[in-house]
Amino acid sequence: MPILVMKFGGTSVATLDRIRRAAKRVGREVAGGYDVIVIVSAMSGETNKLVGYVEETSPLFDAREYDAVVSSGENVTAGLMALTLQEMDVSARSWQGWQVPLKTNSAHASARIEEIPTGNILAKFGEGMKVAVVAGFQGIGDDGRITTLGRGGSDTTAVAFAASFKAERCDIFTDVDGVYTTDPRICGKARKLDKIAFEEMLELASLGAKVLQTRSVELAMRYNVKLRVLSSFEEHNDEAGTLVCAEEDNMESKAVAGVAYSKDEAKVTLISVADRPGVSAAIFGPLADAGVNVDMIVQNISEEGRTDMTFSCPTNQVKRAEKAVNDAKARGEINFHGLVADTEVCKVSIVGIGMRSHAGVAARMFQALRDENINIKVITTSEIKVSVLIDRKYMELAVQALHDAFELEKG
Ligand code: ADP
Ligand code: ASP
Ligand code: MG
Q1: Which among 63, 165, 271, 320 is placed 20 to 30 Å from 113, CA to CA?
Q2: Claim to verify: residue 16 and residue 120 sit in the same structural domain
Q3: Residues 78-108: pLDDT tens digits?
């Protein structure tokens, strides 16, 4: 039998009623002749609640215990989905990550998938079972403990299953009907794309577009998984949603394909650092060792041999970052006169393969922000994106202004 992977995100399994709706949709694919692997997220809000419990209990938590707690939301929905299917006379059972087993490394809270043996589930399909419901987001580490794949990780579970089982398609059911030029929740003019190239989706995801986890896009690109994003709330045909696929000649040739934002940014400045060879290594080595994901970096012009060093990192890693550099200072490895953390910033980015061949894209972006009187704090660029760090209060305004400036509402 051909295999389909269907992933339902948090809002699509938020209530028993919605689980029934999702199960009906799965039932239709089974009736159409497929064996189905269903990947479920936790009910919406559950994972946030569990993360909150962990952070309140232990601010610099042990990531192994974090995983033990936050993986539990998916266990509930996997069991409920299997029960719902059984009630509909569809033969189904649930699997937790470790039972598959979905094997990962032991980088707790952001583990990477290493292997998904297919034997257990294929044997059950062979015995006539029609649906394997798998708890998304979780696996078992090479340290023998439960791991999670980072926020939004059920998308990655789904694509990894589609690759391992050579599924005909991987459908990601969510609360919007596809990938848009920007988040439709903050920009009314956002336009749904019928197709988007893997590379653009990869950048949009890594720059904050929550609709797919970055790693899921990476895997889909590597294993050429047919990946589709669509709404779990609407009925649709085979052409619905957005297909994430390899770049094609007939794709839109605009310089900019989309605008992404990330609220989860903080800017940390080390004031008056000695400007000498090795200083960056001395700062960013300890930060890496402490597991801080540094994103943007700027070093100011130095005066009298001293300079300011600014970097950005996720908001919830600021405490870790402060501890890491203060410890390095105490050990005499770096010296700075002060540390300023600004957690009221955000990152806004424009993405497009077309930037490779269009000149002046960054200048147009900066002009659009200037027209709104928005001050840019840090800039980074790559071949197909430009990102700026700005005050968080201007985030929506900036996204809308850039969407207008690059005329993304037009097809
Ligand atoms: P799920 O719980 O189904 O995994 P997520 O909340 O993780 O859903 O992702 C879907 C959300 O992603 C949408 O509700 C939307 O607000 C947000 N989003 C951000 N950028 C985009 C975009 N470019 N296109 C579509 N949705 C986007
Ligand atoms: N429940 C997890 C989260 O909220 C994983 C997921 O939904 O993809 O991040
Ligand atoms: Mg998600």
Answers
A1: 320
A2: yes
A3: 999 999 999 999 999 999 999 999 999 999 9
